[in-house]
Amino acid sequence: MSILVLAEHNNQSLKEATKKALTAALKISSPAHVVVIGNNCASAANEAATLEGVEEVLHVEDTTYENMLCEPTADLLFELMKSYDYLVSAATTNGKNILPRVAAKLDVSQISEIISVIDNKTYQRPIYAGNAIATVESSSEKNVITVRTTAFETAQVGSSIATIKKIDAGNNPGLSEFIEEKVSSSERPELTSAGTIVSGGRGMQSGDNFKMLESVADKLGAAVGASRAAVDAGFVPNEYQVGQTGKVVAPELYIAVGISGAIQHLAGMKDSKVIVAINKDDEAPIFEVADYGLVADLFDAVPELDKELEKIQK
Question: Nearest to residue 247, comparing CAs of 271, 276, 213, 221?
Answer without folding.
Answer: 271
